[in-house]
Amino acid sequence: MDIPWWRDAVVYEIYVRSFADASGDGVGDLAGIRERLPYLRRLGVDAIWLTPFYPSPMADGGYDVADYRGVDPMFGSLDDFDALVTQAHELGLRVLVDVVPNHSSSAHPWFQEALRGVGRDRYIFRDHTNNWKSTFSGPAWTQTPDGQYYLHLFAPEQPDFNWRNREVHEEFLDVLRFWLERGVDGFRIDVAMGLYKAEGLPDVGDQSFTSVSPVWGQPEVHGVYREWRRLLDSYPGERMAVGEVWTDDAEDLARYVRPDELHQSFNFAWLEAPWSATAFRKVIDDTLAAVPYATWVLSNHDVVRHRTRYGTDDPGAGLARARAALLTMLALPGSAYLYQGEELGLPEVTDLPDDARQDPIFFRSKGELPGRDGCRVPIPWTVDPPSHGFSPGGVEPWLPQPESFAELSVEKQEGVADSTLECYRRALALRRALAGEIPYTLEWLDSPEGVLFFTRGPLICALNCGTGPVHLPEHTEVLLTSGPLKRGLLPQDTAVWLRRAS
Ligand code: NOJ
Question: Which residues span the membrane (predicted)?
Answer without folding.
Answer: none
